[in-house]
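Chapter summary example.
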Amino acid sequence: MTALHPQTDAVLKTEYQKSVASYWNNNPNDDRVNTKLGEVDGLYHHHYGIGAPDLSVLEGPEETRQERLVKELHRLETAQADLLLDQLGDVRPGDALMDGGSGRGGTSFMANQRFGCRMDGVTISEYQVGFANDQARERGVSDKVQFHFKNMLDTGFETGSKRGIWTNETTMYVDLFELFAEFSRLLEPGGRYVCITGCSNDVFGARSSSVSWIDAHYGCNIHPRSQYFKALAANNLVPVAVRDLTPDTIPYWELRTHSELATGVEKPFLTSYKEGSFQYLMIVADKVGR
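The structure predicted for these 290 residues follows.
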């Protein structure tokens, strides 16, 4: 095996992190859903969608049905990112935000366009950093929007330097107590953290077979819902809003079953959501104290 670059060793501190980064670095075209949807308008997302779909896309000429489906799925994913940004509160052009696990940068560009603020995206994939920074240059915003090869558990950014931080379907790859300790350090007093994530439902009891299937498919470790609130409380992050987005995302997954981009993960997502073993949760929390 080729030795990792010294900087890589400093960022990727466990074998698991190295394996996750290796997947994205060496298989960038495997995630056809993300790349195909991103080609619609140049916003490349790495998350799922919410809202009522326009089911008329399933009607009309067969030869253009898949194109219509792609555009509608992308619209729902962009709606999810818009909802997340709605939660960040009063963000001014002079503020700085951070996207933890920024992927190819879609939501970061949306935040900069909406608020005019400084954006820093962090990801452990060097491929994603390069892709997103190329996008920033093409958009003419590289002075305000930058992506960094950094570990969101240990970013190296200055203490208290961020007005807001979000994670969008990335927390299942890390320890929540370590993550929220770093986010609490980075946020200014009164700063805001927004999390959208899939989590297992403690009330359901043991982890369901569908949730275990999703874990295996993505190579992640889905946390129980209660773990989020324990880790937030331990790090001076106080929830101000919690919303179960499960009913809002089920129609997205149902629509996706009709797409040629379907990967097979649609069934366990729908099964676990409908049986109540898995939830799509949005948590908005403010940093208290220093």
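To summarize the output: The two ends are 44 Å apart (CA to CA).
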